[in-house]
Design brief:
Shape: rod-shaped
Number of helices: 7
Distance between the termini: 33 Å
Number of strands: 0
Structural class: mainly alpha
Strand content: under 5%
Helix content: over 70%
Number of domains: 1
Amino acid sequence: MPWKDIVTDDTGIMLKSLIEKKKKKEKMKGWHSFFVIATLILLGALTVRIFIFQQELLKENPFNILSENYLLLMAAVTCFLFQNYYYTKKKKEKDKYDRLRDEVIDHLNYTWYLNIQPEIKDQISSYMQDTHDINVTFKTK
């Protein structure tokens, strides 16, 4: 008998919620990584443009460099701000995910029908690990 037919609705809802939180966490992680890379590329392009292609401007008036490259500079600053925003969102989502995962582990450990039939808990754990890469066997930090 499959474990989905045996577990109660609250266990199923908790597991679905955990899967959704994991997906949301991974999405925020992806956006954060994208903006980190974009920021680094834009800063590298700005550095190359200033020190290779505009050395004569750098010698004449160093403050004039900023007015010549304001679009590239503003793009780099904007990407940095988005990177910072998604870092904060990623951290919040990771905290929510970790708290819910701990709650699911406690729920699975203390649910009476899973204690009577431990193979159901093993099926749930292997399903979550194999399908969604979520460890619900034990808590780790």
